[in-house]
Specification:
Length: 343
């Protein structure tokens, strides 16, 4: 099956309805898209990381995996599930989490889902599953921070970090919606990678050398740091960054607290991507943790734009370019995409 053709067909069939004013029709199509997401994620068997997840599930993986995720895996092994039923249950649960996230944040659920299915659905839900799991939980956390329910937010922060350590970078968000710290936070968000990334490199190198912790963890991240990546410097990524910056800075003064929180995430992600693209693939991986918020923010910006039809047309085109970017990033996955191939 051609994943590129399938996604292009979904975009072609659903995008005209993004311009509709019929809320009932759009919500129905949104539900249909969620069913597509559930079906593809539950039954796909071609993820590049699938073999690694099998090893993780059966306790044979060579490096340390975050403790909360291992507890989840241990529970499903304890109740007697084999790997593929576990994989299906996990995919179904993540799809439901995404659905709840869209309902919580998105003003235009159909357009949000179209952006997602052509970008992060491929790179995160189908491939980088643990990372996707942790990002979804963190975005729920953001809403509780906005509502100043810090106990629940701390619980979600710990849960997310226990599934994937990359979300530890979200800690400054606890101060994002305190008016006393808002301007200071914005400044910190934009410069924090300067002070975080290079000490991180030295720390990981030291850990690896002294074998204080799991050497495979440090070795993995150092390998990511030493892998050259042009993701932050390609023409498409520069155009993408420019589009996001223009969209945000032309409208940010009008944002409610929900959209402001999403905008902070996107800006931090852009800074990680471009400021540290030269140090390897890790910078790009970390930036995507924050940039995921763009699929929620961009459709919401429509309400702040005078020419809403034009902006929606731009977002449909942007969704197409995200799909092409995903195809270029994971060409083998697109070419070898399979369903129901249980081996």
């Amino acid at each position: 099956m051609s994943l590129l053709f399938l996604n292009f067909l979904i975009l072609l069939l659903f995008s005209p309805f993004a311009f509709s004013k019929n809320a009932l029709l759009k919500n129905g199509l949104f539900a249909l898209l969620i069913l597509c997401i559930i079906f593809l994620s539950v039954f796909q068997t071609s993820s590049p990381d699938l073999d690694n997840y099998k090893l993780i599930y059966y306790g044979k993986y060579f490096r340390h995996i975050e403790p909360v995720y291992m507890d989840i895996v241990s529970f499903f092994r304890f109740i007697g599930l084999n790997f593929y039923p576990f994989w299906a249950v996990q995919a179904f649960f993540l799809s439901l989490l995404f659905y709840r996230l869209v309902v919580m944040y998105a003003d235009d659920r159909l357009l949000t889902s179209l952006l997602f299915i052509n970008s992060y659905f491929i790179s995160k839900q189908l491939i980088q599953t643990r990372n996707f799991f942790s990002i979804l939980i963190l975005l729920f956390m953001v809403r509780f921070v906005i509502e100043r329910k810090y106990k629940v937010a701390c619980l979600l922060y710990g849960l997310s970090s226990g599934i994937h350590y990359s979300t530890l970078l979200f800690a400054p968000l606890f101060f994002a919606h305190n008016k006393k710290f808002e301007k200071l936070f914005f400044f910190i968000v934009m410069i924090s990678p300067i002070f975080l990334v290079y000490p991180l490199i030295n720390l990981l190198s030291t850990i690896s050398a002294l074998q204080i912790s799991d050497k495979y963890v440090a070795a993995y991240y150092i390998a990511q740091l030493n892998t050259e990546s042009d993701l932050g410097r390609s023409v498409f990524q520069i155009a993408r960054g420019f589009f996001l910056l223009v969209s945000i800075f032309l409208t940010i003064k009008k944002y409610d607290s929900k959209d402001k929180g999403l905008a902070f995430l996107v800006l931090e992600g852009l800074f990680f991507k471009f400021a540290f693209s030269s140090i390897g693939h890790l910078a790009s991986r970390l930036s995507e943790v924050f940039l995921f918020a763009e699929v929620l923010l961009l459709p919401n910006i429509t309400k702040y734009i005078q020419n809403k039809t034009l902006y929606k047309a731009i977002l449909v085109a942007y969704s197409f370019f995200l799909l092409i970017s995903s195809k270029n990033t994971y060409p083998q996955f697109f070419e070898n995409f399979t369903l129901f191939d249980y081996r």
